[in-house]
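Dear colleague,

Thank you for sharing your sequence with our group. We've completed the structure prediction you requested, and as agreed, I am returning the results in plain text so they can be pasted directly into your records. Please verify that the sequence below matches your submission; if there's any discrepancy, let me know and we will rerun it promptly.
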Amino acid sequence: MSNTNKKGVLFVHTEPYNQAVKRQLNNPWSDQVANGYNTELERLAYSSRLLGSNPDIVLEGGGNTSIKLQENDLSILYVKGSGRNLAQVTQEDFTPLLLSPLQRAVEDNVNHAPLIEKIVAQAVINPDSARPSIETLMHAALPYCCVMHTHADSVLAAMNVDEIHQVHSTIYGSLAPLVDYQHSGFDLARACWQALKNQGNDQSIGLILAFHGAVSFGKDVRQAYENMLHLISLAQNYLNPFIDYPPADGSGDHLLAPSWPTSLVELTLEDLHKRINALAGFPLHLYQVKDFSFMKLLAIHQRTGLLEQGPATPQHALYTKRYPLLNRDLKAYARDYRHYLDTSLGTADSAWIDVAPRIVIDSQWGLCAFGKTLKEAQAASLMYQHDLQVMELAQRHGHYRSAPIDSIAQAEFEYGGYALRKKTTL
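Please find the predicted structure tokens below.
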């Protein structure tokens, strides 16, 4: 069901709720298709599309891949361009860079943001190429031909727990050393380089990034791709015994109980939408999901407090914010969210980010996702559904936790482009 108001702003849909983590991971790789491509770069684009087309592995804007090639006696790193959707990439979506200056920057610990930005910019071979992925330095630092990075649900569900080191040791060990959470960019690249150097061995096929998914690598595209699937399958195998456990609080048969302030009981969804638009300062599209099984899952999470913990990976906050509006009290939400941003980022950086919620959870309306476009609202809805499933599975085998709140705020600021806009404005 869908409708629009006179300004074309309101879009309301209903859809079934689909579990994010599957018991079996299919491998759609086709030798016939892969052998039809003439270059490893084309095969990288092919494997990237396979990963990107599976929402259990990659969601909107997530994931990045790369390959190192020798061309005219130069070592070239081809990395996915920033903003390119992994599900649709072609070889033209990969940005070529000189490899050696990037590797030296990480190995020499050149931890100075302006200098790092200059090094990356000067390494770009074609000025007409897309801006390289924020993870470019990580791809450069890992000494393998092909490197792939995803935010696979199974890996997040297995690792996003207080008991992360114990679980990691059980599932992966040195096969994929654990990297403590670092923000994207130089810090993450350096941490990955050091983890592989200090904890890796000849059998290592990747890295596990706390709150940030998995990295795989290999001597060629196919090996890196299959190593990624193997890392995800290991997490799924670990989670499978917990999937059919009763809900974490022993219930789940009741829908959300209303918890609205008295003055907001009669508020309509259209009224709330208008207020959210006013708070954001621009019109937002609405995408609604209301399904019985989904509502039961929401009820579980509300009672256990998981909905306020934070997303499965900080990048999702760009679409969903750190936590949803739960009780229709928009003024209180805006006040608390501004305090969180001010405390985490400082008032100067916080001022760039609006505090209108992107996810509303309500016993009457279900899950309502908001975005600057309908596509963005749909992406926020899908991300939050996947995050809920990650929370649920993590809570069944441990105690779910998200990345530190300061890190989530930093991701919202930088992934949202506010840091770049601020720099351009100053």
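Summary note from our side: The radius of gyration is 22 Å.

Kind regards,
the structure core
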